[in-house]
Amino acid sequence: MRGPDAMQESLFTVAKLDDFVPVDHPLRAIRLLVNDALAAMNTRFNEIYADSGRDSIAPEKLIRALLLQVFYSIRSERQLCEQLRYNLLFRWFVGVALDDPIWDHSTFSKNRDRLLAHQVVEGFFAEVLRLADSRGLLSKDHFSVDGTLIQAWASQKSFRPKDGSDDQRPGGGGRNAQADWKGQPRSNDTHASTTDPDARLYRKSHNTASILCYQGHALMENRNGLVVSAVVSHADGFGERKAALAMLDALPSTTRRRSVGADKAYDTPHVAAHDTRRGGSAIDGRTTRHSSYRISQSIRKRIEEPFGWSKTIGRIRQTVFRGLQRVDQQFKLTITANNLMRLARIPVAVPCGARP
User: Fold this and answer.
1) What's the N-to-C CA distance of the chain in angstroms?
2) Which is nearest to 149 in space by CA: 201, 206, 76, 194?
3) Per-residue pLDDT tens over the stretch 76-127
4) Helix (H, G, I), strand (E, B), or coil: what is residue 297?
5) Which of the residues 143, 268, 306, 317 could staple to 311 if both were Cys, CB 3.0 to 4.6 A apart?
6) Helices 120-134 and 105-117 meet at what angle, rounded to 10?
7) Euclidean distance between CA atoms 31 and 21, whole angstroms
8) Which segments within the chain are labelled E, that is strand?
9) What percent of the chain has pLDDT over 90?
């Protein structure tokens, strides 16, 4: 018998948002971790907000909404607020009741900027790592480090001489005409982007084109592939090494020796030997003869996984923010989301020392 093409809504309903979310949905485990981390930040939230005045958007809901934006590759706050109106899963994860009004996207953006100004993202990143450490999931001895380029939200046409002159020769007609810089020297010393002054002209290798970008750096522990430190710097030839040393120095002090794996661009132990470099590699048999060196070189490749996930899902291949601080906050939030996904997939805590 054919069913009728009609919809009859009930006058009353007793269903809750939790009833619409499958019991095995991946966001359930992630939400528990997020709530534990946010509960530990209650003191910091009290310091940010005044004791009186009009209620703002709860910072806990802001953080959960920003995580959803990363998990589901939502391109803007406008689209995020739109989906919160009708997506029951999103409402459940953020903590918005079925009949509660959703904020305007401009209000959401203003409240988000308050979190960025008070470095809430850094605190949330640290609390997630604290949860992982309390479960024995972090290695204290073996790490891997690497960097990646983040394309800036600025075009090549915005890269203008600092003295105010015009070095762009028109290459065609129209409102958005092509520009021709052939034969003209352009460098970060003489030029800067008028759209994003913190962006730098840089290329990954001699075989690639130069782009306006930033450098994102990550330090990963080798036990479960969790990123324990993340930072964004200006793009230059020394940024990766400087950032690696800074992240290692920021780790809690210990009397035990540590190993750090990286690709051959670093060329220091436990880094892949740069044998093709003029004069040979700085690494000799005193390092390469050990079995721990081979293990470190095998595991270090896992650091590409959070970078790959962050660029395809987290949308940091090209940032939508401008300025070093804003890009750094976006990078840390995206890496934190990746850590949460990894933590949610680890069913049982691994005792300390069980794996390298």
Assistant:
1) 63
2) 201
3) 999 999 999 999 999 999 999 988 999 999 999 998 888 888 889 999 999 9
4) helix
5) 317
6) 70
7) 12
8) 142-151, 159-161, 169-170, 179-180, 191-193, 200-202, 211-221, 227-234, 259-261
9) 48
Q: How many CB atoms lie within 10 A of CB 162?
A: 11
Contacts of 329 (CB under 8 A, 6+ apart): 116, 121, 321
Using an 8 Å Cβ cutoff, are 323 and 198 in contact?
Answer: yes
Note the pLDDT tens digit of each residue in 44-67: 998 888 888 788 889 999 999 999
Question: Which residues share a beta bridge with 221?
Answer: 143
Q: Is the pLDDT of residue 228 over 90?
A: yes
Tens of pLDDT, residues 245-254: 899 888 887 7
d(CA 216, CA 319): 11
| Cα distances (angstroms) measured from residue 33 to each of 101, 223, 313, 340 | 26, 19, 20, 7
